[in-house]
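Ticket #4471: structure output looks truncated?

Reporter: J.K.
Steps to reproduce: submitted the chain below (516 residues) through the standard prediction queue, then opened the result file.
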Amino acid sequence: MFSEKDIDQIKSKGLTLNKVTSQIELFKTGLPFVNLQSAATINNGILKFSEEDKKTAINLFDAKRNNYTIIKFVPASGAATRMFKSFFSFIEDYNPEKETVNAYINRTKESLLAVFFVGLEKLPFYNLILDKIEEVYPDYHNVSSDKQRYMFVKTMLETDKLNYGFYPKGLLPFHQYKEHIATAFEEHLFEAALYASSKSRANLHYTISEKYKDIFDDEFKKIQTIVERKTNTKFEISFSYQKEATDTIAVNLDNQPFRLEDGSLLFRPSGHGALLSNLNDLNSDIIFIKNIDNVVVFKYENEVSEYKKMLAGILIDIQTKAFEYLEKLENKQLSETEIIEIAKFLTNNMHVVISSEFEKYANEYQIEYLISKLNRPIRVCGMVKNEGEPGGGPFWVKDESGQISLQIVESAQINKKDKSQKEILKNATHFNPVDLVCGIKDYKGNKFNLEQFVDHKTAFITMKTKTGKDLKALELPGLWNGSMANWNTIFVEVPLITFNPVKTVTDLLKPTHQVK
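Returned output as attached by the reporter:
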């Protein structure tokens, strides 16, 4: 299947022939849907904290945080292209000489454009675009309002103008304050000072596209002094890139390697699951994970940070007890009562489903079994009440060996043609806002190798096109989906205020992104 030239190309990416062959095998065999047992709901896999419990968890975190190394991990490699999808179509399809903007909106049902033009002046980059328009369209003030709108969108998006559609999302103007405009990158610094800092130092790690490294560096240099003074916190910023060795081979519809016009193989980035490798390179006691576009303006930051601290307090509490039990188990001198106590802790506090055969095991196997269940990375995940947002959600899932566990599942992983699976999906009450606090070290302080806890069968196959030809692409198990399938998982309800993603440009008009 592969020539010497192919093999050289594979090796140059840091991949092995074995790995690529097994990826092609996955295309041929197909990937199984997950087997949902039930939706995770309040008191059935999702914890709901009272105000008093929340305060207790926050106080625990605040009391202990300086004993831990903490880092905030922010996936930030995406360009803002999807935010402006409707607007690229507008530039291409709209002719101001032939129809009004309203007629175009009615014809194409692009309601986002209507919201955009109504809220134009509230956008954080409104004045920046007007300034640029003065440069490129001297006759702007003398044309019809429809033509002005057309010029506005062209100035915002075209590559020889502001080029916002191909800008990294993290560096796009997000929030308009009285004195300056803040990016999402900057807002993450202010947030980190509140909850992801220890001993007045905050470490943040952004995964970015390598081509943007210099502009991220420049942005940090520009704001560092002001942010450090305002937050009384020193910042350590680090960056990493999605590794080429995590790319996956593309195939044609016959499951043969897809080749470009020059005969070379086509490899594609493999989705956010590729970032497990970046996460695995970190070595902190506590890791907060939050997407780049999920930020709020300053006045909401304290409220949001309270829930982050609550999740971290829960992690510290659970992990401390788990470590104590692991030390006892290591000594192997446990009474039957103590073994039952640890099994109950796993069931009641960590939502681990214990084997029905457990009571029949000999004492030494019970100890081995409990160690294997306890000695894993832990993630505490905020879950938000489902209000129709797309994305993954919390479910009880049964794997091929019959084990049941809590998982974050994307709708693409569910067989919607199966009535019972569709019914479980319909009964889901919460969704995943990507709000995680992780413990990645064992009870002896050694870092886990996170690659050992992946369920490789939860990869995705998606249909794409390249140069007008159909192809199949392989996405690795998602970072918070199959990549963390064998972690210990605790789901906790958090309010909607903690979830403020900017998926389209009009999301910047929502209250949590507006200063006034």
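Triage note (M.O.): checked the attachment and the full token line is present. The two ends are 61 Å apart (CA to CA).
Status: closed, working as intended.
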